[in-house]
Design goal:
12 helices, 9 strands, 15% strand, elongated, 327 residues, alpha/beta, 7-stranded mixed β-sheet, two-stranded antiparallel sheet, binds S-adenosylmethionine
């Protein structure tokens, strides 16, 4: 009866559901967004805890089952079920999101939520364990990656609960974790495209020094191209983008991160980096400019795997001050 392709794994442990509800900090006045309510085990307790629940479910059979379950009960007037793909629909207003989602949409969903306005209070979401650990990873942790840095720029994330595979029917192949995502208010004043451009380059080889990353031929030629284009147009990207523009960049980000955000450099061959040779005098001027910025901030010998949010912010502002841009 369950569709594997839709990630249908139903929560069967009532104590676990109680624990999720309790840790969510739902207020009686809250409008709750639930994604993928399935047969409604979580939905029922959300309805008891909050003011109303808007549940978005892809599978029409599940939508019917859910409506049948609450029909004629006092809870039904506070439940709105919408049939559709959460990634394709316009999100309604909500105060808090609580969901046991299909894992294949983790990344795009996270950034769709973070790009929604007005910003919600928090989201409490069940993810595949590894995705959850990437979200909360800190500098120096093995799983610290572009997903960690970008999410933590926009939100505070905490690991709430470890959940074993045997809490679901049918059981998935992987363990899970519940994570709390709380959008930062106000959002930090960075141009998000610039930010992600820098972070992408840094994490392409996260265990190499920034000095060697920024000596790579493809990196230097990309940056020089941006530099020349902006000079020709006599433009500089704004220091921070306005909120609408930021939201658009954030929502697009999920698609570039992939489901499991395997953006670490595992398996990449260190020998395939081509460093810019100094034969071309002009190219070498630009290279010196870039390396000068790294030296100025003391970043040459540092590695992305150890850089904090504040480090990335500082590095970006030094680059931008030197007229070097990432978008
Ligand atoms: N919340 C239920 C529970 O905890 O028992 C079911 C969770 S199950 C992991 C995920 C649910 O999301 C399924 O009911 C599936 O049909 C639904 N779903 C899958 N893809 C979806 C999408 N893109 N948009 C909305 N719902 C989706």
């Amino acid at each position: 009866p369950f569709h594997k392709s839709k990630g249908q794994h139903i929560l069967k442990n009532p104590l676990l559901i109680d624990s999720i509800i309790q840790k969510s900090g739902i207020k009686p006045t809250d409008v709750i967004l639930e994604i993928g309510p399935g047969t409604g085990n979580l939905t029922k307790k959300l309805l008891e805890a909050g003011k109303s629940v808007i549940a978005v479910e892809l599978d029409p059979r599940m939508v019917l089952e859910l409506q049948r379950r609450f029909q004629g009960t006092p809870l039904s007037s506070r439940l709105k079920v919408m049939q559709g793909d959460i990634l394709k629909c316009d999100l309604p207003y909500f105060d808090i999101c609580v969901a046991n989602i299909p894992y294949q949409i983790s990344s795009p969903l996270t950034f769709k939520l973070l790009s929604h306005r007005p910003l919600f209070r928090c989201a409490v979401i069940m993810f595949q364990r590894e995705f959850a650990m990437r979200l909360v990873a800190q500098p120096g942790d093995t799983l610290y990656c572009r997903l960690s840095v970008n999410t933590q720029l926009l939100a505070r994330v905490n690991h709430l609960l470890k959940v074993g595979w045997n809490n679901f029917r049918p059981p998935p192949k992987v363990d899970s974790s519940v994570v709390r995502i709380e959008p930062r208010k106000p959002l930090p004043p960075v141009n998000f495209k610039e930010w992600d451009g820098l972070v992408r380059i840094c994490f392409n080889r996260k265990n190499k020094t920034l000095g060697s990353i920024f000596r790579q031929k493809n990196v230097l030629s990309l940056l020089e191209k941006n530099f020349k284009t902006l000079q020709a147009l006599q433009l500089t990207p704004e220091g921070s983008s306005d909120d609408t523009e930021m939201a658009m960049c954030v929502s697009a980000l999920g698609d570039t991160l992939g489901d499991l955000s395997m953006d670490t450099d595992v398996g990449k061959d260190d020998d395939d980096d081509i460093e810019m040779d100094d034969g071309d005098a002009k190219a070498s001027d630009f290279k010196n400019k870039v390396l000068g910025v790294l030296k100025l901030g003391g970043f040459e010998e540092k590695r992305s795997s150890k850089l904090t949010q504040a480090d990335f912010m500082h590095l970006l502002s030094l680059f931008n001050k030197a007229g070097i841009h990432f978008s």
